[in-house]
Design a protein that fits this description.
This protein is mostly beta strands and 220 residues long. It is 7% helix and 70% strand.
Length: 220
């Protein structure tokens, strides 16, 4: 981990010495995240991201942009079961959300196809800050003769999951953006997790992060 951070700092330092112009800014936006690989039942979950960046302009066409973002990621699973027997319908549902909080460091190379439109790509390292799960369960028995609820049960549980998720995640980003003015911009980006984040003892499942981001930002 220390070697990766040292390399990232060295790259940022070198790029800064080659800069024609450096601008700082802040960005925030929407996350649509899921888990990939062996997490076959994982569904997309809504989150958010927030942080800052430095745009190091190397030429009219190229820039280097290191960022530091807090990112709400993870996924949810849903299951349901129903059965009708002896005049009653039995319905059972369960939803579980795995909420992962990362401090991400993307290192983005930007190419300005026009004065306002740019393409971007680059690696990312993420450090796990938090991992929690929330689970909601419900069970309902309906009397088919009149549609009334004969019996029902519900339960909610939550807990910490950090011991079962690896503390460091590596990924690669691709995206594009548009600058409305010299200061304001919007962007879309996809982060593909390249490393296995599963840290459950005895499990051979390989699970990665997958995050689509929509961002709005301001350069000072």
């Amino acid at each position: 981990m220390k070697k990766v951070l040292f390399t990232a700092i060295a790259v940022i330092g070198f790029m800064s010495t080659q800069a024609q112009e450096i601008k700082f800014g802040a960005k925030a936006g929407l996350n649509l995240s899921t888990l990939t690989g062996d997490a076959e039942d994982a569904k997309m979950m809504i989150g958010a991201h927030l942080g800052g960046f430095a745009e190091i302009k190397l030429s009219d066409k190229f820039a280097f942009q290191p960022e530091l973002l807090y990112s709400m990621q993870g996924a949810k699973t849903e299951s349901s079961y129903s059965e009708t027997d002896f005049g009653y319908t039995y319905i059972e549902t369960e939803e579980t959300k795995l909420k992962l909080g990362y401090l991400n460091l993307p290192l983005m190379a930007k190419y300005f196809a026009t004065d306002k439109l740019y393409l971007e790509a680059g690696p990312q390292i993420g450090f796990l800050v938090s991992a929690k799960y929330d689970s909601d369960y419900s069970y309902v028995v309906i009397d088919d003769s009149d549609g009334s609820i004969f019996d029902s049960e519900s339960d909610s549980t939550s807990g910490d999951y950090k011991d079962f998720v690896k503390s460091v995640d590596f990924g690669f980003n691709v995206g594009l953006g548009y600058e409305f003015t010299e200061n304001m911009f919007a962007g879309a980006r996809y982060n593909l997790g390249l490393s296995d984040i599963n840290d459950v003892n005895g499990s051979n499942d390989k699970i990665g992060n997958g995050v689509f981001q929509l961002s709005f930002g301001y350069k000072f």
